[in-house]
Each structure stands twice: as C-alpha cells, then as structure tokens.
C-alpha cells in the first residue's frame, strides 16, 4: 500500500543475499533489498494470510512486480492522490521511490509476520491522518479548492483497488485467465488487508463483476481524471533522472514498469496521459507482452516466484496453520 508522506529507500533488486536485521533499512539499494529479505526470513509467524491464501498464491509471481508503474499511474490519476503526493511527499519529484515504497509496504503487509504487518499498517494510518489539503486545479468532476484527505474511505478504496486490479490484470495478461472463485477469494483477502489501513471491509468490490463496474464508473464519471499535477508527477516516473551509479538492474526494471503500464493501462487513462507515455511503441509492447506471456507460462512455478515471497514461503514450510 502506498503512503503519501515519507517513503522508504528504493528496492531495485529482489536479491536475497545478505543477512541484515538492522532496525531501519539501509539506503543503498542492494543492501535495502537484502534487508527486506532478512525481515521476511526472520518473521515469527505467517502473518494474517499465509500460504493457503489467494494473496500468497497470486502475489508470489515475480512478474506482478512489473505492474507497479501501472498501479502508480492509476493512483495519480485520482486528483486527490496526485495533489497529496505533490503537497506532502518528499518523493514528489522521485516517483520511483513511491513506486518501490508501494512494493515494500505490500510485501510486509502480505508476506510479513503479524507484528510486521501491524507496524506497517500503523505507519500508513499515521501518515494518512496528517495528509490534508485542497486541489490546486479544476480536473474531472473536481473543482479547484476541493478539500482532500488521505484517510477518506473513497481515496483509500481507489488506492487499494489500483493495486489489486493491476495484480489481476498483469497476472491474466501473462499467465492466463483466473477462475472467478479465486478472484473473489483474492478480493476478500484484499478487503481484510484494507481494514488494516482504515478502509471499511464493505468498501471493497467482492467479485470480478463488482470490480469491473467500480473501475468503469469512476473512470467515466470524472472521479478519475489526469490533470497537470498528475502529468508532472508521471513525467518524472516515465523519464526518471537517475543518479550516476544507479544499479543497471534498477534502470531496466524501471523501464519495464513503464512498458507494462503503456500496454495495460485502461484506454481512457492512457489517453489522458498523452504526451507522457511513449505511445509510439504501444503495438510493439503488446506483441512483446504476448510473446513474454507465452514463455512465462512454461517456466516452473519455483523459477517464477519472487525471491521475497520465496523467503516467506520457505519460512512457512513447517509453521502453525495459517490464520483462518
């Protein structure tokens, strides 16, 4: 789950080498990845979901990490979210930090222990409680001066839905259509996760149909609309100015998240980001996605599993049963 205030340092590589259990994560990217791996490996229980949950079954797929650019661009397409990031986040000019902060919080909420999940959720709630302001532009159905707050249930719902919807879209685009029953279980798990950060459980869609209708409604009624604030933030994500010495893997990863966003964003959102996304490669991206998906389906699950999730799965090999 993303936060609108301070963000953790980047996690460019799922490299689980290292054994750091420092209280706070280091700033160097590879050491940060090792720190997160160590946190997950040392967790004392399977958390609130566990290996039998739909969240673990789907989120273990490493390819879902490539959807983070899509999720962030969809989040920024809500004027409240974009304005909050601009007004309150030190990562406003570094949206890749926000992208990776989303991934980090999600890993700890989903694959961390109950204590780790509780701590992450508490920090998110604390940050959101202090994020308030007013829109600086007319955009969609919103007028300049409209007040916003990060802990508003509608804003929270949109942010969580972008993460869930992106995971499902990326999964089905690369690995094939999911059974509706599994999607319902996944959404139920996501609703439970949402309650941890202040979202009422009934606010989340319960099945594929409700999810599709909700997203379609907010995309068509002006609730979701890309303004100048969002475009400015998105520009920094799509064409980041990375410091000299940035890990080459991170550069490739950042580029791939943009490719995935261009290929899989809803048409109406992609069109509103015109001039920001490199649309001239759209057909090439889609062809590459189809070819990549065909290859991924033949890769064994163990080889497709995100190393961070793999740590949690190994940890749970002989634990107490997952929470009901």
Protein described:
By secondary structure, the protein is mostly helical. It has one domain. The chain is built from 15 helices and two strands. The chain has a two-stranded antiparallel sheet.
Keywords:
324 residues; mainly alpha; two-stranded antiparallel sheet; 2% strand; globular; disordered C terminus
- The number of domains is 1
Looking across the biggest beta sheet, what order are the strands in? 1-2
- Poorly predicted ranges: 5-15, 17-22, 319-324
Number of helices: 15
Oligomer: single chain
Succession of helices and strands: HHHHHHEEHHHHHHHHH
User: Sheet bearing the most strands, described?
Assistant: 2 strands, antiparallel
Percent range for helical residues? 55-70%
Rg of Cα set: 19 Å
Strand content: under 5%
Per the principal axes of the C-alpha atoms, what is the gross shape? globular
Short structural summary:
The chain is mostly helical. The protein has one domain. It has 15 helices and two strands.
Task: Please outline the helices and strands.
Elements: H1 29-42, H2 54-59, H3 68-76, H4 79-88, H5 95-111, H6 114-129, E1 132-134, E2 147-149, H7 153-175, H8 180-196, H9 208-220, H10 228-238, H11 248-264, H12 267-272, H13 282-296, H14 301-304, H15 307-315
Antiparallel strand pairs: 1-2
């Amino acid at each position: 789950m993303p936060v609108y205030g301070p963000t953790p340092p980047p996690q460019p590589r799922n490299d689980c080498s290292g054994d750091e259990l420092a209280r706070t994560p280091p700033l160097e990217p590879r050491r940060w990845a090792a720190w997160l791996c160590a946190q997950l490996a040392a967790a004392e229980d399977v958390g609130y979901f566990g290996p039998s949950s739909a969240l673990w079954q789907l989120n273990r797929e490493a390819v879902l990490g490539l959807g983070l650019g899509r999720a962030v661009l969809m989040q920024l397409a809500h004027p409240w979210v974009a304005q909050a990031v601009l007004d309150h986040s030190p990562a406003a000019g570094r949206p890749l930090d926000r992208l990776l902060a989303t991934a980090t919080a999600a890993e700890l909420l989903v694959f961390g222990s109950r204590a780790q999940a509780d701590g992450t959720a508490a920090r998110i709630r604390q940050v959101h409680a202090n994020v308030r302001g007013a829109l600086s532009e007319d955009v969609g159905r919103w007028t300049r001066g409209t007040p916003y707050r990060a802990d508003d249930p509608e804003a929270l719902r949109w942010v969580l839905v972008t993460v869930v919807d992106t995971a499902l879209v990326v999964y089905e685009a690369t690995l094939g259509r999911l059974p509706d029953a599994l999607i319902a279980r996944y959404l139920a798990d996501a609703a439970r996760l949402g309650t941890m950060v202040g979202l009422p459980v009934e606010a989340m869609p319960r099945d594929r149909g409700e999810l599709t209708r909700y997203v379609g409604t907010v995309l068509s009624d002006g609730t979701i609309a890309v303004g100048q604030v969002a475009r400015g933030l998105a520009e920094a994500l799509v064409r980041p100015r990375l410091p000299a010495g940035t890990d080459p893997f991170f550069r490739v990863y950042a580029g791939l998240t943009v490719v995935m966003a261009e290929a899989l964003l809803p048409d109406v959102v992609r069109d509103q980001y015109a001039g920001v996304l490199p649309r001239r490669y759209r057909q090439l991206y889609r062809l590459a996605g189809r070819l990549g998906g065909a290859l991924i389906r033949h890769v064994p699950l163990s080889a497709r599993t995100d190393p961070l999730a793999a740590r949690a799965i190994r940890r749970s090999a002989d634990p107490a049963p997952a929470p009901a």
